[in-house]
Amino acid sequence: MIGMTLTAIISTMLIMVLLVVAGTFTWVERRVLGFVQERLGPNRVGPFGFLQWVADTVKILTKEDRPPPGADRVAYILAPMVAATPVLAGFGVVAFGDGLSLANIDVGVMFLLGMMGLTVYGVVLGALASNSRFALMGGLRAAAQMLAYETFLGLSLLGVVMLAGSLSLTEIVHAQRDVWFVLLQPFGAALFCIAGVAAAHRLPFDLPESENDLVAGYLTEYTGMSFGLFFLGEYLAVLLVASLAVTLFFGGWLGPWLLGPWLPGPIWFGLKVGVIALIFIWIRATLPRPRYDQLVRFAWKIALPLALGNLLLTGLIVVARSAP
Amino acid sequence: MSAVDLVNELSARFGEAVQGAQPTHDAFPTLWIAPEAMPAVHRYLKHEIAQPFPLLVDLWAIDETARHHREGQPPSGVTIASHLMSLQRNADIRLKCALPANDPRAHSIAGIYPNADWYEREAFDMFGVHFEGRRDHRRILMPPLWDGHPMRKDQPARATERPPFVMTAALFDAEEQALAADPEALGLPTQRDGVELMILNYGPHSMATHGVFRIVLALDGEEIVAARPDIGFHHRGAEKMGERQSWHQYIPYTDRIDYLGGVMGEMPYLQAVERLCGITVPARAETVRIMLCEIYRIMNHLLFYGTLAQDTGAMSPVFYMFTDRERGYRVIEAITGARMHPGWFRIGGLAADLPEGWDALVRDFLDWMPSRLDDYEGMVMRNEIFRARTVGIAAYDTATALDWGITGPGLRATGCGWDTRKQRPYSGYQNFEFEVPTGHRGDCYDRARVRVDEIRQSLRIIRQCLDHMPAGPIKADHPLTTPPPRERMLHDIETMIHHFVGASWGPVVPAGEATGQVESVRGLTQYAVVSDGETTSYRTRIRTPSFAHLQSIATIAPGLTVADLVAYLGSIDYVMSDVDR
Fold first, then answer.
1. Which of A164, B120, B152, B172 is the most exposed place for a label (fewest CB within 10 A)?
2. Nearest residue on chain B to A206, judged by CA atoms?
3. Last residue of some domain: A38, A62, A86?
4. Measured between alpha carbons, how far is B544 from B264 in angstroms, rounded to an integer?
5. Is B493 exposed, middle or buried (0-12, 13-18, 19+ CB in 10 A)?
6. Superfamily name and number for B3-155
7. A40 CB within 8 Å of a chain B CB
8. What is the ipTM of this complex?
């Protein structure tokens, strides 16, 4: 009983921290984009505009939020929750430090993949429920894109699982004490990052939203806090993908080489996630968006065979090394 | 073959149907044709004659009922005029036909020149002219429920001449109903091979349509099966205003026809007016006009560049280009005192001389741009994803372009090197060295390529203006120069009187007809003005390139995906105010 209460309290705290981090991340993104694009970005609310995200949250919470006429009310209200909840749940197994995870389950990688896969239901549900043709097209794109990218997202990290011999995130980090897996699995890491961007629906893989041709895709009819939940889910998904990348390929909470003991594990972890999140922003500022069919073709015809090849190669090496 | 030979040839072939030639103030022969012979003459000029006229530049109507000066013209109530261009001859011809005022019925030429379709709809909408051989007569610019044909002389130009407008709930609903995207009325298919198509109402408030513009799409998945562009949401009655404002007062309106072209819109209007007045503009004024036009061309093309990149999903370039545009606008601001719509050219010259230190400002801008353009080259034009999104997308050939009246970069991207500045130099363009960039595929990428190269050519022209700016007056020595030079106005009574008349009534421009053509930022812009010897224009016809470009969407869009359509729309580079006027 006490154990459960404790878990509940820690979970709530974790969610609170995550909300603040996601809010801060939106501010960082807007400032960085402003810097990259020769403009200022938000700089009015609080020091360096830091409180902008608080103001935005207040605005979004107080906005009227109602389904458009003809929408499926239940699904319309449910969809943002379906989109945001799995991402929050995914953080439950992330190992922020040695032993610092809410639930250190031994199939952590599987759980995370499952949770990330679930987010697409929220998107498709929201698109169908909105009774808007733009949303519908966004939903279709989301479904096709996720189907294409989930396949090689899973395959790209299986190499790591083979090398570590475990599906537990903690074990995988421990296996990187000597050398980070990014050096042993460069293809896997590259493919994972591409698929990760797609899983988080970020430019150049933001086709479900694609504001230049679909207005806002599946988000078109959403407003107020139900929009806010989708938004939150997306930003948390970026952080979740970054956390997963750090855990699988960049040594998790371990500091690089001899620098490890200088800072506590969770700080290292946070720094690495921050760097990867910055790269996400950088990519967004730089690249145009490919067309939907080009994107899906890339996933099935290039990325998937590469991921399979990588898996085969890794398997051969692992078997050869373990053979006496 | 000269214009006289052409007229003789047509007279010999069509005999009585050619009712006579009309003298005008421009270089184009103008012939009166019997209404029933219009299709035959057009067909002959497009298909049968040696060195044909493949481009229908414009087709418009003139309500003649209130006109006094019609010397040398057959009696007419409503006149339909069409303007054809031959690229091979580098010559134009204008054909007119006289129709009765109370039930004007002309013959459609949309079967010969496809782009006549929208022009005929406009003539119906604005003048009530019916065209035999058309499937239907639908309004194009005015709201569907509008009563009357507003360009007729008996229709008021001011809201105060009508009873007060009241929007009732019933009227609102009726107007809204009338705008619903009804596939049947638009002639859109609802099925293809037994598959039901999705009708998507794209716009008029979509960021992808770059303004209030609607396209009704029939979609099979993401593929466009048919598209029907729908315009008129930005209509302000600019041509009607031309009949209400004095010749001088109308100049600022011309800025706002293509609101990104700045002073570019003043050029063709003033050319036409100055031809009517017989004014020769001094060299310094001409060179300054060119310089400003080219700066505005750069301003527009930078916006095009950034928004096309934006349309393909790249969010940053447009911000860099706004930094550049800000620098350009600083130059414009220092010279004209305004940024987007300076209204700075005057009949017979300019509003003011260049300010002190203008050369340093212009030089700064010229030195700033090239390295920035190099950056964009890597960021946009050489970007693999951008190329994947634009190469081979929405391609058309020169013949299709001419069929639909496409001019400017959209035509040059197909490999046709027509540029009015080169072929028919005006305002002294013949004194400048510059090239006309062309493409060869006629796709989105080439349209972008042509414009990007044009930026560099414009920089070249501005550099030459800077190095060789002539000295001398900025206003012509002519009584109709409006307003007259201020120094003289304060010293001699005659100039004072001209100033007074010009400022109170407006200048009285001699009766006649004249045309001005320029290579504007988007293509061929043409003003055909009719003066009846009054202080206002009798008819101001504005031929804009964007109008023609949008009409071609229905032909070119099928087969594209929705995402391609956005890149295609971006590559057309239209401005809705330029379409609807």
1. B172
2. B313
3. A62
4. 12
5. exposed
6. NADH:ubiquinone oxidoreductase Nqo5 subunit (3.30.460.80)
7. no
8. 0.84
